[in-house]
Amino acid sequence: MARPALSAMAELLKPITWFPPMWAFGCGVVASGVPVADRWGMVLVGILLAGPLVCATSQVVNDWFDREVDAINEPNRPIPSGRVPGRWGLYLAVTWTLLSLAVATTLGPWGLGAAALGLLLAWAYSAPPVRLKRNGWFGNTACAFSYEGLAWVTGAAVMVGGAMPDPRSLALAAIYSLGAHGIMTLNDFKSIAGDRTMGIASLPVQLGAARAAWVACLVMALAQAAVVALLLAWDAPRHASAVALLLLAQVLLMRRFLADPVARAVWYSGLGVTLYVAGMLVSAFALRGLAGTAG
């Protein structure tokens, strides 16, 4: 059997996609209120787990089970192009899953549990017979919780010694995960043709581009509005104001995106999502400040 070049296998791991879960992990670390210097070794392990391991695993799994769709949408990808021949993509997916679980055992029960759930969702998202991605409501929810919420929870759990994180941190992780459903919908605009051909009911396919764009924007905006309300309730008005301003900037960008969602989905992903994740970090610092006040 032909063997793929290491560069093609590395391309399957898609390093560019590692940033969101690594960022969310960092938000969980900040939100814990525990100084990084106290657990810097575990933080490095957690960053490795969130990006190069669990996220990378999800990318390889998705590329393997999406090879027919990618042959239509993006035929130059490693598997449909033949640069990763035979079943090498599947072998890498299984190997990276096992490696991820092995590393996760060092992070305590909450860290291991979050990583295991993230890996389970990664396989359920792409692999039959479950293949959650066949429906944009379910598939995008699984991705959003894996990329944002579970990574945040892992970061917070690592900092508190593998125990249950602060309930306020869990609440923010859940809300930002719900909002990230909209981010996942933005990613679906680039593959409408292939999804329709292969029977994948992404939201742009189900609802049409215009309505799917509205759903994505509303989901992202409502989640951040809920965060603002919580921060006010937790007596963090400055942080609440900062998140509100970031949301306002997104609303202004949304108006242009909604005018032509297919052409501007990538543009809005670059700008709007950056503002969204900036709000995540602001919220994390709010909890850090509250922890310091309580201490």
Whole-Å distance between the termini?
Answer: 61 Å
Q: So what's the overall shape?
A: globular
The largest sheet, given as strand count, sense and whether it forms a barrel, is:
none
Average predicted confidence as pLDDT = 92
Strand content: under 5%
The low-confidence runs, each spanning 5 or more residues with pLDDT under 50, are none
Quickly give the structural class. mainly alpha
- In DSSP terms, counting alpha (H) and pi (I) runs of 4 or more, how many helices? 13
Characterize this entry briefly.
This protein is mostly helical and 295 residues long. The chain is built from 13 helices and no strands.
Q: What does it look like?
A:
With 295 residues, the protein is mainly alpha-helical. Helices cover 78% and strands 0% of the residues. It is globular. The model has no long low-confidence stretch (mean pLDDT 92).
Main features:
globular; 78% helix; 0% strand
Question: How are the SSEs placed, and which strands pair?
Answer:
Layout (H helix, E strand, L loop, with lengths): L5 H8 L5 H14 L7 H26 L1 H7 L14 H17 L3 H19 L9 H24 L7 H22 L3 H7 L4 H5 L1 H25 L3 H23 L1 H34 L1
